[in-house]
Every structure is written in C-alpha cells, then in structure tokens.
Amino acid sequence: MRLRNKPWAQKLVAEHPEAILNEPDPDKKINWEERFDDFSKPLAIEIGSGKGQFITTLAKEHPEMNFIGVELQTTAAGMILRTKLEDKIDNLQLMCADAANIAMYLPENSVDIVYLNFSDPWPKTRHEKRRLTYKSFLDKYRQILKPEGHVEFKTDNRGLFEYSLVSLNNYGMQFDYVSLDLHHADDEIFERNVETEYEHKFAAKGNPIYCLHAHFVK
C-alpha cells in the first residue's frame, strides 16, 4: 500500500545518513563494518519493511543480532527511522532502496535470515517478475545468504503463497516449515512470531496467515 508523502519523513531521512542509506548507488560498495558496532553478529534483513513494526520489535528483542530494514517508500522508511532514533535501536540499519539491487548492497554469504512479510502480491501475470519470490529474486537471496541461512515468508494472500511454494520448489529450495494458518498453529514458530502491522489487522479479521521457511540446497 502506497503511503501519502510526508515532508517530515523526507527531511528526517536526509538528516540521518548514519542510520539510513537513501537510494544508495548499487555500484558503490557499502561499508557495513562502519555502520554497525559489531558486524560479526548474525545478520537478518527484512525486504519491504512497511512502517517497521516487525523489524524494530525484532531488533529490540534480539540485541545479539544485527538487522537491516529495506523499504522502497521514503515515507515508510522515515517512520521506521523515527522509531529507531526514538528507541535508540543501535543494531538496526535502514535502506530506502529497490530490493532488485539487494545482492549489490550486501556481501556474498553475509546474511543469516531474509524476511519477506506481506509482500505486494502483484496478481497480474505480466507483473510476475516483480514478486519477491520470483526466481530472479531467489537468485539474489542465494547470493547474500550464508550456506546455513534461510528465507522466512508470511502473507495473507493465498494466491501469492501458492505461487511462492511452486517458485521455491522449482528453484530447488527445501522447505523447513509450512503453515496454512500460522495464528492457529500450536508450535514453536507461532510462539516466537512477531507480527507486522498488516498481519495484526488481517489476523484480527479472522484471515488465515500463511507462512513458510525454506533454505537453499548447496
């Protein structure tokens, strides 16, 4: 969902280059060692962070890890940045950037988890290549993930979930977890689940939340 532009968000993003990379040049290497206090910690990234409820909550709960939130919309990125600054979340960095370039922004074999939460389903067939579980995006995740790393995906969209199951399977990925109704699953995955803004809204309406975890076979 596209948010209305908020001038304060654009101003905040411009004022804090130490906390957020705004449309970075994909041909220029990013020095992540300088952006984190300890870049040797396990690293998780969320592609499409929205207003940031998921990534900020997770970063506060897990100071032993580093997190990167990637969001294309400046207004949404500004909202996440505001929370990061107000709550002093030092283990979180942000990028206002196109996820299509993600493999150019991060070193190979550097990421432990890629989170894909409530991504745009792009339901029309002609837009298939824009889906974040399309094979070209899987190529990029494979490049940046460590050999033992994995992808965690959640959505309320049945069509996108079914598409993603087929796409990941055709790519040769191995599924570690699949749920057709995460919020009614009596398991460890639900116990540690952190909700996004959209997830909370959809689940409150009784919509099932679909979830999968998968890894690449090396």
UniProtKB/TrEMBL annotation:
Enzyme class: transferase
Signal peptide: none
Name of the molecule in the record: tRNA (guanine-N(7)-)-methyltransferase
Chain spans, region Interaction with RNA: 126-131
Organism: Lactobacillus johnsonii N6.2
Catalytic activities: guanosine(46) in tRNA + S-adenosyl-L-methionine = N(7)-methylguanosine(46) in tRNA + S-adenosyl-L-homocysteine
Chain segments annotated as coiled-coil in the UniProt record: none
Entry keyword annotation includes tRNA processing: yes
Tree of life domain: Bacteria
Gene: trmB
Keyword set includes S-adenosyl-L-methionine: yes
PANTHER family with a match to the protein in the record: 3-DEOXY-D-MANNO-OCTULOSONIC-ACID TRANSFERASE/TRNA GUANINE-N 7 - -METHYLTRANSFERASE (PTHR23417), PENTACOTRIPEPTIDE-REPEAT REGION OF PRORP DOMAIN-CONTAINING PROTEIN (PTHR23417:SF14)
GO CC aspect terms: tRNA methyltransferase complex
Binding site for S-adenosyl-L-methionine: E46, E71, D98, D120
EC number: 2.1.1.33
Protein keywords: Methyltransferase, S-adenosyl-L-methionine, Transferase, tRNA processing
Amino-acid positions noted as binding substrate in the UniProt annotation, renumbered to this chain: K124, D156, T196, E197, Y198, E199
Similarity field: Belongs to the class I-like SAM-binding methyltransferase superfamily. TrmB family.
